[in-house]
Amino acid sequence: MAATLNTALALLDYLVRFPSLPGQSNLTIAGYIHDYLKDHGVYAELIHDDSGERANLLATIGPAIDGGVALSGHMDVVPVDGQAWTRPAFELTRDGGRVYGRGAVDMKGFLACALAIVPDLVTAPLKRPVHLAFTYDEEPGSIGAPGLARHFVATGMKPAAVIVGEPTEMKVIAGHKGGFERCTRFTGVAGHSSDPGRGVSAIHYAARFITFLEGLGQEFAAKPLPDSPFQPPFNTVNVGTIGGGAGRSIIAEDCTLDWELRVTPPDDGIAPMQRIEAFLTDLETEMQAAFPQASIVTEEVSNYPGLRFDPDSSALDVVRQLSGENSFTAAPFGTDAGCFDREGLPSVVFGPGSIDQAHIPDEYIETSQIEACLAFLEGLRARQCR
After folding, report:
1. Can you give the pLDDT at residue 192?
2. Calpha distance 365→175 (Å, rounded)
3. How confident is the model over 118-143, as pLDDT tens digits?
4. 254: closest CA among 304, 295, 213?
5. Who's near 168: CB < 8 A, 6+ residues apart?
6. DSSP class per residue in 45-111
7. How far apart are CA 97 and CA 352, in angstroms?
8. For the whole model, what pTM was predicted?
9. Under-50 pLDDT residues of the chain
10. With contact defined as beta carbons under 8 Å apart, do 128 and 59 qualify?
């Protein structure tokens, strides 16, 4: 194997040292990857967000034609605050058949494998291209991927597959759910609790919204999609956090909820979101009837589309042929794959390591999984030369 385990681990060591947290500038890690590719004669384009502080990366190795395969991964990692790490979080530590560090499995391990095969790709007689499509801020809900997907389409090259290398233990995920993540702030009118009519309780109205969401979730569960590959086979809602109020004898002036609607393809979630927004509008109207200064404001945290389950997808064909995996499943979590699929770029989720090791203290990836990924990518290189 030309792209050796040691090569991939050396690259992973560099990548883990970048604390590339969501919402912060990622130009250092993107710049490192850009320079690495430049040193190997590969032009990589950095596509910046409006702030100029974050960037996606897109590179093409081989002829700029259709039929390529894109290797996609996100450069950001989740924070380590409040976690009980026993090893340095932003250094790669090798212990037996595992390597530890934040992002080792989610998902800098895949990025390291993709970069490790670059020297072989550059010297190979590629008949069809291999693209590298690396995104920023996937963890908060695929913030960077929509722009990169649109930019990819604008190049005019139609890949046969976009392989999003999230940790799947090198098993094929051909579909996943999408989601709407929101933060809703209820602003009431404070007053003494001895006379509730002298104010508006933000907490009481937030509780009514929670009850509405709970009822909506029960409605979804009562109508599962027949023959759906997704589990559970229906949309779900969840209120993740709640906070507000100043004391038990004070009419609550504020209350904030973080909540999500998780949608099951082929549903795009637009209709249920309209129902939710209409309910909030009615609640706000009621709050403002006596106190016009009361309000309900919902902030869009993220929208990430689902990945449609398509057993005839060209992306699925590519990965199954190269991996020998005949079975494939759907996942309840979201990835960047849905963003590529929405733009007409056939996508699949397939990568080294286990999702069980993601986001935890002492995150790790098995070196055997890195070796398996390198072997898969060597097969991809040979395929693109045929």
Report:
1. 95
2. 23
3. 999 999 999 999 999 999 999 988 99
4. 295
5. 349, 350, 351, 355
6. EEEE-TTSS-EEEEEEES-SSSS-EEEEEE------TT---SS-TTS-EEETTEEESTTTTTTHHHH
7. 14
8. 0.89
9. 1
10. no
CA dihedral (200, 206, 211, 216) positive or negative: positive
3-state helix, strand, coil in the chain (%, to 5): 35, 25, 40
Are 103 and 81 in contact by the 8 Å Cβ rule? The answer is no
CA distances 295 to 206, 275, 284, Å, are 11, 18, 6
Nearest to 59 by CA among 72, 75, 78: 72
Please state, in angstroms and rounded to a whole number, the distance separating the CA atoms of residues 284 and 48: 38
Single out the catalytic residue among 13, 76, 166, 341.
Answer: 76
**Token pair of 70, please?**
């894109």
For tokens 């009519």, the residue is 197
In the numeric block, the tokens 């007053």 are attached to 191
Q: From the candidates 13, 138, 181, 343, which is the catalytic residue?
A: 138
Q: For residue 384, how far is the Cα from the chain centroid?
A: 27
Is 36 buried (19+), middle (13-18) or exposed (0-12) by CB count in 10 A?
middle
pLDDT the model gives residue 281? 98
pLDDT of amino acid 332: 81
Specify whether 138 is catalytic.
yes
The residue written with tokens 């200064």 in the block is 293
Question: What does the pLDDT read at residue 3?
Answer: 60
Q: List the beta strands (DSSP E) in the chain.
A: 44-48, 55-61, 69-74, 93-95, 98-100, 130-135, 161-164, 172-176, 178-187, 236-244, 254-263, 295-304, 328-331, 347-349, 364-366
Task: Give residue 17's pLDDT.
Answer: 98
